[in-house]
Amino acid sequence: MKTAMVALSRGDEVVVTCRRPGGVGHSAFLLKDIETLLQGVGWGYGDIDFIGAGTGPGSFTGVRVAVSTAKGLAFSMHKPIAAICSMDAIALSLPREMPVLILVDAGRRRVYAALYQAATRKNAIRLLPITELHSVFEHKNILIAGPAVSKYHEQIMELYKGWLAGVFTTTDGLTAQGFLKAAMKSLASPVAPGDLTPLYLQDPSVRKAEKHGI
């Protein structure tokens, strides 16, 4: 399931979080959710020091909405942006004792995949068919996590039979605390609003063609 998340933090502590199913209509409730959270804790936009934005990889529409909303807020408030790779944030949400393979659904039985050790990405994010996953990531005793896990659970268990330390199958593995940790790391090199771009690993026109069955 696609999930949209908004959170407010103070220092290294998550104060409040709102999660809801993403997808169609994402843009209609994003700003409303932000305002609701601010009102709930008695804050205003003037109390915001920076904005963290998920840049993907993931749903083309969801990433575009997140990035455009963050840019609009940052422009209007003159605040820096922490650009956050969603896969990095998931890795920071999980145990660090073993290698973790993060998977995000890319459609048409493909996944975005990256291997992490101690929450540090060890390779460039790959886009590949789920059937080729094991041939690219031949690792034993790993944890596999991410929003693609529930969709491809049977295939993953077959591909990594006897090799897995575990499969993390909650909604998508991403927590607000992991997102905050990724944001704080990203703030070491903040992004100006005009420079914030989505992390696309395939051309949006290809996604449009796929949607219409071309």
Write up what this structure looks like.
With 214 residues, this protein is α/β, with parallel strands linked by helices. The protein folds into 2 domains: 120 residues, ATPase, nucleotide binding domain (Nucleotidyltransferase, domain 5, 2-Layer Sandwich); 74 residues, ATPase, nucleotide binding domain (Nucleotidyltransferase, domain 5, 2-Layer Sandwich). Helices cover 33% and strands 27% of the residues. The protein has 7 helices and 10 strands. The strands form 3 sheets. Strands 5, 6, 7, 8, 9 and 10 form a 6-stranded mixed beta sheet that branches. Helix 1 packs across helix 2. The longest helix is centred in the N-terminal third of the chain and has 18 residues. The chain is elongated and about 55 Å long. The C terminus is likely disordered.
